[in-house]
Amino acid sequence: MVDEKLETLLGERLDNIVDLALENERLGKLIDSALEARELSKTFRSKVGIAFEMYDGTIIPGFNIETYGHKGNHAEEVGLIIAMSKGYHGTDFKRMIVVYQDAGHDDIEVFPACPLDCWGRLLEFAHPYLEVVVVDINRNVHYRSTLKEMFSGIKSPAQIYPSNKIRLAKPKSNITPKLPLNIALKPAYDSDSNFKQYCDEVLKVKPAWDYPTV
Ligand SMILES: [Zn+2]
Predict the structure, then answer these.
(1) DSSP strand pairing (141-146 vs 59-63)
(2) CB 10: neighbour CB atoms within 10 A?
(3) CATH topology of domain 29-208
(4) Which of 25, 44, 183, 199 is 20 to 30 A from 8 via CA?
(5) How far is the CA of 112 from the centre of ligand 1 (A)?
(6) Which protein residues have a CB closer than 5 Å to ligand 1 (ion)?
(7) What is the mean pLDDT of residues 27-31?
(8) What are the Cα distances from residue 31, in Å, to 34, 137, 139, 170?
(9) CA 48 – ligand 1 centroid, Å
(10) What is the model's pTM?
(11) What confidence category does residue 79 fall into, taking pLDDT thresholds of 50, 70 and 90?
């Protein structure tokens, strides 16, 4: 009887260890993909790579594109477009690995996607329970959260942007990343009420993938 219990317990432990090893291997592969995608960036300032893991196991890359004369594209946006081109939408998305580094600074920088552009888009075209994993170029994981938690954790823009000039990435790190604020986004950060209004509007948005096909 005792032996049986012990056997069950050991079996469960072993299963957990195997699950953890598989998860670590999977995460390592996703980080590789995000780092590879980052090398495709067309950029003169920030260099970002992402990898979406889809529920069917497919990995979709994304990289940022900066232009001097136009708005450019964030890695998350490019990844979403690539995923759409392959017919993925909505709840097909399992998680997103983001590798971010700003070319203007020597420090290792991490940044959990951008609240004004990418969170909103991900919310519409993926779903609130998408897991976001932020990694630095040395493969250290700094931040893990769902999109929903990222939205609900924000009381004021100051939590993400402590000043108009500096962005501060999120917890689980004693690194203090710095990045000049994108001037184009400034109006939305000028007051808490502007920011809150944006979040409210975004959170109320019906997922685009749930729209009826016309
Ligand atoms: Zn973005």
Answers:
(1) unpaired
(2) 10
(3) Cytidine Deaminase; domain 2 (3.40.140)
(4) 25
(5) 9
(6) 74, 114, 117-118
(7) 96
(8) 5, 9, 7, 19
(9) 10
(10) 0.69
(11) very high
Position with higher pLDDT, 172 vs 80:
80
Residues ≥6 apart with Cβ < 8 Å to 72: 64, 65, 66
Mean pLDDT of 6-16: 86
Residue 57 alpha carbon to ligand 1 centre in Å: 24
pLDDT digits (tens, 9 = 90+) for 109-156: 556 666 667 877 887 788 777 888 888 888 888 778 777 777 665 544
Residue from 53, 31, 113 nearest 77 by CA: 113
Domain boundaries, the chain: 29-208
Give the whole-number percent of the chain exceeding pLDDT 70: 61
pLDDT of the residue at 198: 53
Locate tokens 């600074």: which residue?
105
122 CA distance to ligand 1 middle (Å): 10
